[in-house]
Amino acid sequence: VNEIRELSAAGWPLLAILQLLPLAGAAAVLVLGERRAAVWAGRAFALIELWLAVVLYGRIDAASPALQLAEKSGWLPGYHVAADGISALFVLLCALLVVLMALYELVRGLARPGRLLALILLAEAALMGMLLTANLAWFAVLSLAELAITAYLIGHWSTSTPENRALATVRFIQFQAVGLALFVAGIVILAWGHADATGRWSFDLLDLARVPAQGRFQSAAFFLLFYGLAVRTPLFPLHGWLPNVMHRGMVSIAPALLLGVKVGIYAMLRFVLPLTEEAVIVWQIWIVGFAMVGVFYAAVLAFLQTNLRRLLSFAVVSHTSLIVIGLFTLHPLGIAGAVLLSVNFGLAVTVMLFMVGFVFRRTRTTDLARLGGMFERIPFIAACFLVGGLAIVGMPGTPGFDAAHFVLEAAMERFGALPTVAAALGNVTAAGFLLWAFQRAFIAPRPEGEGAQALERTLPMEYLVGGLAVAAMLLAAWYFETWLDLVEPATRALALRFGAAD
Amino acid sequence: MNCWFVFVIWVPLLPLLAAAGIVAYVLNGAAGDHGEPPTARLAEGAGWGALLVLLGLAVLAWIDGAPGHVTLGTWFASGRFVAPISFILDPLSLGFGTLVALVGVVTLRFARQYLHREAGFHRFFIGLSLFLSGMLLIVLAGNAVLTFVGWELCGISSWLLIGYAYERPVATGNALYAFLSNRIGDAGLILGIALATWWLGTAEWSGIQAWAADAARFDKVQARLLLFGFLLAAVAKSAQVPFAAWIGRALEGPTPSSAIFYGALMVHAGVYLTIRLEPVLLQVPDIMVYLALLGLLSALYGWLGGLVQTDVKSSLAFATTTQVGLMFLACGLGWFQFAAWHMALHAAWRAWQFLLSPSYLHLVAGKAKAPPAWLARNQWLYAAALQRFWLEPAAHGALTRPALAVARDMRDLDDNLLSNLVGMPERRRGGADAAEGGDGVIRGHGLAGRALLWAAERCAALERYFVMQGAEGGLRRALRRAGEYLRSFEALLEQPRYLVIAIAITFMVIL
User: pTM for the complete prediction?
Assistant: First the structure.
């Protein structure tokens, strides 16, 4: 099982176009500048990209766990892209989120919408590349590009005082630089081992999987890669950048780019688990232990927050910990659950971030003590926020329900009842702080002195953005089987590498 | 082997004895003008002695053939770990050693006049003799442990002489800076020694070279880590990028010491170490590539930085960095012999230049040359060169500031938690604590005392609760307290330094 099979069946370079189209879109939008047409062009590109993602979904043979539609290039060193069910799902999510962002951006009335849209499309190109590449060096370079774009967004579009904006940007860059450096060190160790064994340098996933690193080097590579991605994801205790970036940085778009598409989780699935199997098995229990602590730690801290944005950041840490528990059950059900959970959480967090953005547009604050009483004025936005929160909690009717169910079932089988009950309790705690936040932000009476200015009613475009996002989430829940069928063969194959029985 | 070769031990020993002799002389009240000649004569005599012994050995080696490795006995041993007193006598070490002794003697002779009636006259000669001993030991040492001894002697004497004018804060600050930068390299040397002993069972240079030649035992990964340690030491000692900043600060000492440390001899210790490691390096070409790049980078750094300097000593220091960078480049390209010649010629030439530098005021008429037009046009490059490529602020931000911050956190931990735990008298934080402490009649000190007090208070609270129904908000207060602790913990996690510490701890555990 040491090899990942690959079929070369690409008639036209669909994957290359998936990566290049947003790039072209960004160029077009940049050229058009701040004209009205720029925004329409950007949206059109985002929509075409979504259509391409659907085409990709159609062309993937979901029954096969192999990497498909592979493309290699003779002249571009290391260019190797391929997709399977998991990447197809993430690509769909990414394209959808960018369409939503392109709509959201104008509604929020952010400064320099043309430039912003171009940057979003650039980030999309980088993200698509990260989701499709089968080369670790390409992944590292593209994530550097993506992080640089996001850092630029945080540095230029943050809605806070200059000091806070600087703090958010600096913390973001410091943490992500360390994370990226760790990731690069990890792939260098792997590639070096490969070069020593075969005499040829390669960062290709398939090459590296053929010659796994040995002993301590594998452990070192595993931790370097895992920590690098854990900073990005983020996981306790390496999550330090997120609260500052969420609280003091951009309200919605940069966090949505970072947290909506969980490339950290994706890279763990795609690269870390197959390349460092033995180390994963050795350290599995430690990772899960830390993730369990993370679920609770973040949940308790979420209870303590007085700012809605900061609170959401801890909600994210809490639920990514749950995803990692699922991933590291190394159980077919658990891994499939983790994949679907990360897509669900990505969508749900984006919905909540957008709604927080709409609230922020009206109040210019996300301080919970100064919010409240908004349900009467903007019930639709409040309801969307609530639905997002419920999806994170794993309410039946949202895709989180089935996925979380899978994760818990797999955890039960692997780790026994007690840890599973603990993890489930952590998720229940999430229900607590999210509902409490909802209550404080939307239902509680408007505090004295804040009621003077009347809140604007929900705009039609806000209905559209919120409605689309929630509809996507509910549809995903309704057709849960479809998505499960899409990722299941690939996740099962992955679990089989770890000797899963069923 | 010719029995005369055992005399090599006197080479580093003579300057060391001279240093000890000067110390004794100073303690016995050397003072005034007539106190100076004995000191100078002692140091110079030792230098001459070392030079003559080396010359004699060189002649002997010429006639008899160089003996290579000479073991005189065991310094200390513990289990598998043995540190012999051994020397390596080959054309490289004898040749360079003779040059070192020669430059040393010349500089000592120069210093006798240059430092006449200086307050620290004797101190200077002690430092210089110590340095000469250390440098000769580096060149002649047959194993990495002895090399390390020499390495440290050089480091200490460099610190002493940069801080020569210790009444000026700048001088002592710079001394500390240079010393600490060098300590990073020392850590690398210790790592190299430890790995060599652990994996190879020996730290003898000849043993390491034999290991590199033995295809059956040689392991590339081990070689890379070994080289990493040794080359870190070499690069730090030779003031290459990224450690290049210290040499600019090291010029604070008297000119003769600058000449011998940063112009002629000590900066070449790293190159010498690299040439010693030639057989290992040749087995791992990828490390050689990095070495070449590093050398090239340092040469560029030194060249660009040197173009904008406005004083003689700084210009010379940057020129030295450039030349030493070129030597590393040569080593990286495999031209070890070329690097050795370059090193010897450069040492001689730069010693002369540095010793001449105080006279430049008289020798040179007119203004200093302006930086070239292309550099002046390119504002960014010009600023970068002028700021020495921001190496110092970068090191400050990346190392000093986090280290200070961690130290501050530790002090807070100590003050707020540990002192309380062991019952040390604590700094009261105001009214809140006093109110919590109850009526103040009973006080618990230390863990046991506090535990007893705590148990007593709980019992009292229980009694109050059942007897008098007085429970009020205790749980809430405890929860709030826990929340505060969690918050401060989270505030720590949001500092990047704890990210780095967490990562370091993991790697200590897994490796």
Answer: 0.75
| Cα–Cα nearest to B320, from B386, B385, B239 | B239
Compute the nearest-CA separation of B337 from chain A (Å): 29
Q: Report d(CA A404, CA A348) in Å as an integer.
A: 14
Burial of B352 (0-12, 13-18, 19+ CB in 10 A): middle
Please write the tens of the pLDDT for every residue from B6-27.
888 999 999 999 999 999 999 9
CB A323 within 8 A of CB A262: yes
The answer for A 333-392 residues in CB contact with B (under 8 A) is none
Nearest Cα residue to B315 out of B231, B266, B269, B258: B258
> What single DSSP character describes residue B82?
E
Q: Is the CA virtual torsion A277, A283, A289, A291 positive or negative? A: negative
A99: tokens are 């369409």
Q: Which of A198, A245, A280, A304 should we substitute to test contact with B (largest number of B Cβ atoms within 10 Å)?
A: A304
Element (H, E) at B208: helix B205-213
Instruction: State how far the alpha carbon of A293 is from the alpha carbons of A124, A296, A326, A345, B213, in Å.
Output: 33, 5, 14, 19, 51
CB within 8 Å: B511 and A219: yes
- The position carrying tokens 């004898």 is B94
Give residue B471's pLDDT: 46
Closest by CA to A124, choosing from A152, A146, A141, is A146
Specify whether the CB–CB gap between A302 and A247 falls below 8 A: no
How many Å apart are CA A345 and CA A262, to the nearest integer? 9
Three-class SS of B412-472: HHHHHHHHHHHCCCCCCCCHHHHHHCCCCCCCCCHHHHHHHHHHHHHHHHHHHHHHHCCCC
Distance from C-alpha of B273 to C-alpha of A221, rounded to nearest angstrom: 31
Asked if residue B133 lies in contact with residue B15, where contact means CB atoms within 8 angstroms, the answer is yes
Distance of residue B219 Cα from the nearest chain A Cα, in angstroms: 11
Look-up of token digits 């200490």? B156
* CA separation, residue B8 to residues B207, B215, B268 (Å): 20, 33, 21
Q: Is A163 helix (H, G, I), strand (E, B) or coil?
A: helix
Q: pLDDT in tens for each of the 502 residues of chain A?
A: 344 555 555 567 888 899 999 999 999 999 988 888 888 899 999 999 999 999 999 888 878 888 888 888 778 888 888 888 899 999 999 999 999 998 888 777 778 888 889 999 999 999 999 999 989 999 999 999 999 999 999 988 887 788 888 889 999 999 999 999 999 999 999 998 888 888 888 898 888 888 888 878 888 899 999 999 999 988 888 888 999 888 888 888 888 888 888 999 999 999 999 888 888 988 888 999 989 888 888 888 888 888 899 999 999 998 899 999 999 998 888 999 999 999 989 999 999 999 999 888 888 888 888 887 788 888 899 999 999 998 888 888 787 888 888 888 898 888 888 888 888 888 888 888 888 889 888 888 887 776 656 778 888 888 988 999 899 888 888 888 888 888 888 888 888 888 765 4
Closest Cα in chain A to B224: A192
The distance of B283 to chain A (nearest Cα, Å) reads 13
Q: Choose the closest CB to A304 out of B487, B496, B510.
A: B487
Give yes or no for a cis peptide into B169 (omega within 30° of 0).
no
Q: Rounded to whole angstroms, how far apart are CA atoms A127 and B454?
A: 56
Q: Dig out the tokens for B19 from the structure.
A: 């240093």
Confidence at residue A488, expressed as pLDDT on a 0 to 100 scale: 87
- What residues of chain B lie within 8 A of the CB of A433, using their CB? none
- What is the number of CB-based contacts under 8 A between chain A and chain B? 52
User: Based on the number of CB atoms within 10 Å of its own CB, is B484 exposed (0-12), middle (13-18) or buried (19 or more)?
Assistant: exposed
CB A461 within 8 A of CB A107: yes
CB contact at 8 A, A270 and B459? no
